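HUMAN: Forgive my ignorance: could you write out one protein's sequence and backbone structure tokens?

ASSISTANT:
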Amino acid sequence: MGELKAFLKSRAVLNLCIVAANVIVFFVLDIMGDTEDAVFMAYHGASFAPWVVENGEYYRLFTCMFLHFGIQHLFNNMLCLLFLGDLLEKLAGKWRYLVIYFAGGLGSSAASVYYDLRTENYAVSAGASGAIFAVIGALVFLAVINRGSIPSVSRRRLYLMAALSVFQGFSSQGVDNVAHVAGFILGFLLGAVLMGRQRVKQVPDLFEEDR
């Protein structure tokens, strides 16, 4: 118990709050109904292109970022966010991190809606993965300009994580790859705009360093 308390105390505050909000929203909805049911999720804030555009329900671009289809979807996303989001917040600062996370998440949701409208292949979409890919994109940008000197994770490992995440998306069914790719690109660009050639500072280790 003491180790868990120490772990949580060492986490970046805003990222931990975002993780907690996702977990709380999930369990509230899970009590109310079936979080793996697309219709139930659509009626509780998931993104669905026709409702977003035709009904003017643009708030769904935001609310869908806090919804997840089942416990495994939540666990996978929050595990990534707990570590990667924590690292970015400590490197970029609280407000830059918030801009990257939410602007990247909203932009990836909008890109997904646009793609669905163009292809007329409509699907109910939810999850924090678009925002998480924005976090990965910003971290990759920092790795590029710092020549792999990001503390706690090597550039090679970060590139591998990003590549594997993209590959998993394209090789799995029911994954919103448009949101993932858009989130990554937006995160990289936002990192460039907000951090420029900023040299990163040392933070406590989150990963074992490559030898």
